[in-house]
């Protein structure tokens, strides 16, 4: 009696087909909901601006068939790329200033009960003030240019960083600190070996929240006398009554903001644990 041995290659091919189909179906399940949502949003946008809007309404200039080509026109002129670069520069510098202030202040408040009780009313008072309320003071102190814009961004972004840092310090298990002190660790060693690693997730969450707030504040802040940036381009297009370009810049702001949040999620590890933000 003869026996037939199965070819290992055949079994490998047979097992690969279902796996490949499963992987493709998994990708489709992840992709089609946002694709359909975007298509519905664009359809409603077209319906509101091209069908429901009156023939003489300015809304017809903001229709997708006019705004989307305007994006390509602005890109071909090199306007959007340079202005996006200016906006990102101001954003990053403002975030850096906010982090340099917020993280040390959060550590001081979180580690010292007396300082926390003293600072709590002031922090709660200041964080409830709209950052744009400081615009006249910023212009009076810094004048026209990048400095007032960076100041307003930092004034908006510092609070989620500070408060998440404080929350991270409060969330540290006291046993870790007791163990470090039992080994006669210095304050610097406790800070670098115990506290900072323990609050890293909270700081990452604070930075991501600060990024979103800063991007929202950036656009109106760039309408304060600077002659570059995405906020300035919105005013420039409005003054020319080019509302298709206004919507084009708004679309770019949304896309860049989405990409910034995506990069922050990837770079910061996607940490969305316990947080307290302003």
TrEMBL record:
GO CC terms of this entry: plasma membrane
UniProt keywords, alphabetically: Cell membrane, Membrane, Transmembrane, Transmembrane helix, Transport
Membrane-spanning parts: 31-48, 88-113, 125-144, 150-172, 209-226, 246-268
InterPro entries to which the protein is assigned, alphabetical: MetI-like, MetI-like_sf
Subcellular compartments: Cell membrane
Domain ABC transmembrane type-1: 84-264
Principal location: membrane
UniProt record similarity statement: Belongs to the binding-protein-dependent transport system permease family.
Protein name: ABC transporter permease
Organism: Mycolicibacterium sphagni
């Amino acid at each position: 009696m003869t026996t037939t041995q199965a070819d290992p290659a055949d079994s490998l091919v047979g097992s690969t087909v279902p796996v490949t189909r499963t992987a493709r179906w998994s990708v489709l399940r992840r992709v089609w909901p946002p694709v359909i949502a975007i298509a519905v949003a664009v359809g409603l946008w077209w319906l509101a601006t091209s069908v429901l809007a009156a023939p003489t309404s300015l809304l017809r200039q903001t229709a997708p068939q006019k705004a989307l080509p305007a994006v390509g026109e602005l890109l071909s002129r090199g306007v959007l790329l340079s202005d996006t670069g200016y906006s990102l520069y101001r954003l990053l510098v403002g975030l850096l200033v906010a982090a340099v202030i917020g993280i040390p202040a959060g550590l001081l408040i979180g580690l010292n009960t007396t300082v926390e009780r003293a600072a709590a009313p002031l922090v709660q008072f200041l964080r409830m003030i709209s950052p744009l309320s400081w615009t006249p003071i910023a212009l009076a102190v810094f004048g026209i240019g990048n400095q007032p814009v960076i100041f307003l961004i930092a004034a908006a972004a510092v609070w989620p960083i500070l408060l998440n840092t404080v929350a991270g310090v409060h969330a540290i298990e006291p046993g870790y600190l007791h163990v470090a002190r039992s080994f006669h660790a210095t304050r610097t060693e406790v800070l670098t070996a115990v506290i900072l690693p323990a609050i890293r997730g909270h700081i990452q969450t604070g930075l991501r929240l600060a990024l979103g707030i800063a991007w929202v504040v950036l656009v109106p802040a760039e309408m304060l006398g600077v002659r570059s940036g995405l906020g300035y381009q919105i005013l420039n297009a409005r003054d020319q009554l080019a509302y298709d370009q206004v919507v084009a810049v708004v679309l770019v702001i949304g896309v860049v903001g989405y990409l910034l949040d995506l990069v922050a999620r990837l770079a910061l590890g996607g940490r969305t644990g316990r947080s307290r933000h302003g």
